[in-house]
Amino acid sequence: MVEFIRQTILPLYGINDEHASISPLGNGHINQTYLVRWATGQIVLQKINTTVFTEPEVLIENAAKVSHHLIQKANNGEYQLDVISPVVLKDGRLSADLGDKGFWRAISYLANSHTIEVVTNQAEAKMAASAFGHFAHALSDLDANSLNDVIPNFLNLPQRITQLKQAIADDKSARLVDCSEWAELVLSQQSLFDELKHVESQLPLRICHNDTKINNMLFDKRDMSSMAVIDIDTCMKGYLMYDFGDMVRAFCSPEEEDSTALDKVIARPEIIKAACEAYTEQLADILTPLEKRSLWLGIKVMALMLGSRFLADHLNGDVYFGIHREGHNLDRAANQLTVFKSLVAQESSLKAFFE
């Protein structure tokens, strides 16, 4: 792949340095991402997974709109983070569709940037939550309907439950016997499904990031201050409770999301409280009272939804999320559903943070 990129892709960007270094970047589950460095510059190059993003042009168009809006905000002094922007090809396009050789695009690279996988303290939680809140606030005056859905029904819990039920019924890889208890846990949450339906119908549509994991927040490794929100490929209309919920379910546990040390997977109250305070402070002038209360629901829903998705993919034979070991998606599912159980067990105290 490296030589293909060097010989075929880089020249499309006017990069003809035979000594350019090309190395994998990050640990995303979906796209193939590379850091390209040459004598006079550096970019992030991606081969978009067109099985997941079936209309990659929509992804490119949405990302460009979001980037342009944030740059305008920054120029007006209303956005304090750096902005990841698209890199154009020599012919002025934002992407290259090479058919069976892939759909490629490039974005800017921020020097001195650093990601983390696990939040270790309240200060990191506040910093990340504040950055994602600031990002959401900056996009609050951009019409939510100006972005098209990159993945329709991406955060649709009823549909995800339907997909899990189908995966259970099919049991294509004969794996249900090893995970039936986790499946029963997901399917037993009817009261949560009913609550979500009621609350969601009353929330305002916002432009959301839709993938607010901690490793989609860049820190400046020189002082570990907030640097940028990245991976805006799934930006589209939605509800802030999902962005907040995805962020917190991803870092409220002291363990990574595929850790098998389930006895250590817990929802840390102090981390959730810190995130709530920082996020709502950034959005104080636009957040409705119901939106604030819904943030707690969002944490539970996102932990359950991601656990359900990992479990369905395990049952289907690992066809969506990339795996690095046998049973990897089951490990991820067990981890997220353990987070969910911990959240529910502490509901009476944790819910008070969002009143």
TrEMBL record:
It comes from the Bacteria. Transmembrane segments: none annotated. InterPro entries: Aminoglycoside_PTrfase, Kinase-like_dom_sf, Pseudomonas-type_ThrB. Residues 22-256 form the Aminoglycoside phosphotransferase domain. This is Aminoglycoside phosphotransferase family protein. It holds the Pfam family APH. Gene3D superfamilies: 3.90.1200.10. It comes from Shewanella electrodiphila.
